[in-house]
Each structure stands twice: as structure tokens, then as C-alpha cells.
Design a protein that fits this description.
The chain has helices at about 10-20, 45-55, 70-75, 75-95, 125-140, 160-170, 190-200, 220-230, 260-265, 275-285; strands at about 1-5, 25-30, 40, 60, 100-105, 145-150, 150, 175-180, 185, 185-190, 205-210, 215, 235-240. By secondary structure, the chain is an alpha/beta fold. The protein has one domain (about 1-160, about 185-215, about 255-270): NAD(P)-binding Rossmann-like Domain (Rossmann fold, 3-Layer(aba) Sandwich), CATH 3.40.50.720. Helix 1 (about 10-20) links the parallel strand 1 (about 1-5) and strand 2.
């Protein structure tokens, strides 16, 4: 089996490729850098088509996205290029040389009282709209779409996860601004890798929420990280409303997800918030 990973050198891609390599999968790691295993610009339709024609991957995992929500709002053309054009090119390539597509989408499509099922979407910013457009394209071919929000220790020097940022604030003895009104269902990257491995092997077709069994506010997530690190940050936390920062793009407040559809289709049990926290704290304590 040959697996092409687009965005292999990003936050999730680096962890996923290490995981798949350890499991003895044959992987092609795409990047734009001259140091990448496969130097390829998937925004260029001919490049992606010729690459797939030459290597004939059984599975393509698309991790490419512009996830800078404010930048997407300011530059929608760039958001479309990264979040939609790449998928459009993959769909066209599939029509000539079929493969199973695994596409990573986002919980930012939700902004109603949760936990939200897959059909209950409410995109409120350009980032979410472009990710939804990419999902529509994916549904035209044999694909598995995952809506998720992942945390965990980054293995990439210039890319930090939400939990990386919290960890740096905690150990740096800094004041921390945390939203008390934003709810999410994060999953750790190691658990997400197990999910992706099952999808590689079973090839389910459809769209699934993949996150923790339950949900938590971003403030409480930070407080519980500190508690598990045995560091008291109560007097350093600024509990703020998401509107206070006057961000360029609107942000959803309730991104909590209903994972029942995944549970019915899968043998991989998704973790609770507490298990997610335990697992990522172990990663930070190893360094």
C-alpha cells in the first residue's frame, strides 16, 4: 500500500508520518521545500496529476490548509487556494487514477448549541466556508472526511498547537488570556493517528466528527492542563469573552461535537477530555 501525505511537514503531518513509518506503511511525504521527500505543489493541477499518475497511491491524506482564521478573512483568495483548490485538483486526479481520499476538515463549521451532529453546520467566517466547500468536493469521490480539532506537542520547530501555547504560558509564569465562552471537543494527535490508520485500512465513505467524547471550555482546558502539571495558575488566568480581543474574523463559540456517527462506524474508541489531557501531559513531561 502506498500512502501520499499532503502537508506531511506540518503540525499533524509530522506526527502522522512518524506514526505511519513506525507501523511500516510506505508513505510519500509531500512538501514544497527542496528538503521534502516529495517536492510538489498540489495547487498546480498538472503537478498533482502527474505525481499521482507516476506513483499511483492507494490512499491520499490531505492535511493542507490555511488555518490562520484572520488571514483567511483578510485574503479570501489565498484561503480558497489552500483550502479548496488543492481538493479540486485531487478530485480531478481521482477521475483518472482512483485512490481513497482522507480529508481533514474542521470543527469551526459548528456554532450552535452543541454537541452538534454532522448536518448541523453554521460557518461564520471565510475559513469555515472554504473548508465546507472542500468537503462538498470530497463527497464527489471515494473519500472519508474528518471534522476535528487536535492538540498535543508539536514536533515542528515553527508550528505550535493550542496546547503548546498554553504549556509555554504555564511554565513561563506568564499571564494567560483564556476564553470562558468557547467550547470545543479536542482530540490528541496520537489518538487521531489511530483513527486515520483505521480509515486507511477500512476505507469508510462519509463525513465524521472525530473528537473527545465530551467537551470543555478553552479556559477550563488550560486550568486542567496546569493542574495535571501541578502548577497553580489561578492568579495568572484572565478569564475573557471571545469578543474582547476584537479579532478580524468571527469565531464560533460552541464547537462541541456529537461523535455517535463515528462510534457506530468504528472500532477505535475516542478518548474523554481527561484522557486527552493525560496523554498530552505525558508528552510535555518527557522533555
Amino acid at each position: 500500500m502506498i500512502i501520499l501525505v499532503l502537508g506531511a511537514y506540518g503540525l499533524l503531518g509530522t506526527t502522522l508520518c512518524s506514526f505511519l513509518h513506525e507501523r511500516k506503511y510506505k508513505i510519500l511525504r509531500q512538501g514544497r521545500s527542496k528538503f521534502a521527500h516529495c517536492t510538489l505543489n498540489p495547487i498546480d493541477k498538472n503537478q498533482i496529476l502527474n505525481f499521482i499518475k507516476t506513483h499511483r497511491p492507494n490512499t491520499v491524506i490531505n492535511l493542507i490548509a490555511n488555518t490562520n482564521v484572520d488571514e483567511c478573512e483578510q485574503y479570501p483568495d489565498l484561503a480558497f487556494e489552500a483550502n479548496v483548490k488543492v481538493v479540486e485538483n485531487l478530485v480531478e486526479s481521482y477521475r483518472e487514477f482512483p485512490f481513497h481520499l482522507i480529508h481533514i476538515s474542521t470543527d469551526q463549521l459548528y456554532d450552535s448549541k452543541g454537541p452538534s451532529i454532522e448536518s448541523k453546520i453554521k460557518p461564520i467566517n471565510t475559513y469555515a466556508i472554504t473548508k465546507y466547500c472542500s468537503e462538498i468536493l470530497c463527497k464527489q469521490i471515494h473519500s472519508t472526511i474528518i471534522r476535528t480539532n487536535f492538540v498535543g506537542k508539536s514536533k515542528v520547530n515553527n508550528k505550535a498547537s493550542f496546547s503548546d501555547w498554553i504549556y509555554s504560558q504555564i511554565i513561563g509564569n506568564k499571564k494567560i488570556n483564556l476564553f470562558h465562552d468557547v467550547i470545543f471537543s479536542p482530540i490528541d494527535m496520537n489518538s487521531l493517528c489511530l483513527v486515520i490508520e483505521e480509515i486507511i485500512n477500512k476505507r469508510p465513505v462519509g463525513l465524521f466528527n472525530v473528537g473527545a467524547e465530551n467537551s470543555i471550555t478553552k479556559k477550563d482546558f488550560g486550568l486542567r492542563m496546569a493542574y495535571k502539571l501541578n502548577i497553580d495558575i489561578e492568579n495568572r488566568v484572565n478569564s475573557i469573552n471571545s469578543k474582547e480581543l476584537n479579532l478580524i474574523a468571527k469565531r464560533p463559540k460552541d464547537m462541541s461535537m456529537d461523535i455517535n456517527l463515528w462510534n457506530k462506524a468504528s472500532e477505535v474508541k475516542l478518548p474523554t477530555i481527561d484522557k486527552v489531557l493525560e496523554d498530552i501531559i505525558l508528552e510535555y513531561k518527557q522533555f
